[in-house]
C-alpha cells in the first residue's frame, strides 16, 4: 500500500511541476510580447522608454 501511495504522490508532484512550468512559459511569452510592443510603439519624443524603471 505504501509504495502505491508513494508512486501516486510522485505522479502528482511531477504533474503539478509540469503544469506550473507550462504556466510560467505562457507568462514569459506574454511578458515578452508586451515588452516588444512597448519597444516598437515607443513615444516619438522623450527618453524613448515607455516604462518608468
Please give a handful of descriptors for the protein shown.
single chain; 53 residues; mainly alpha; 1 helix; 74% helix
What does this entry look like structurally?
This protein is mostly helical. The chain has one domain. It has one helix and no strands.
**How far apart, in Å, are the first and last alpha carbons?**
55 Å
Count of alpha/pi helices = 1
Q: Which class do the helix and strand fractions yield? A: mainly alpha
What order do the SSEs take from the amino end to the carboxyl end, as H and E? H
Concise overview:
With 53 residues, the protein is an all-alpha fold.
Topology:
Blueprint: H1 2-40
Amino acid at each position: 500500500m505504501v509504495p502505491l501511495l508513494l508512486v501516486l504522490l510522485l505522479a502528482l508532484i511531477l504533474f503539478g511541476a509540469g503544469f506550473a512550468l507550462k504556466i510560467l512559459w505562457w507568462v514569459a511569452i506574454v511578458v515578452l510580447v508586451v515588452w516588444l510592443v512597448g519597444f516598437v510603439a515607443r513615444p516619438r519624443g522623450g527618453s524613448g522608454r515607455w516604462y518608468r524603471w
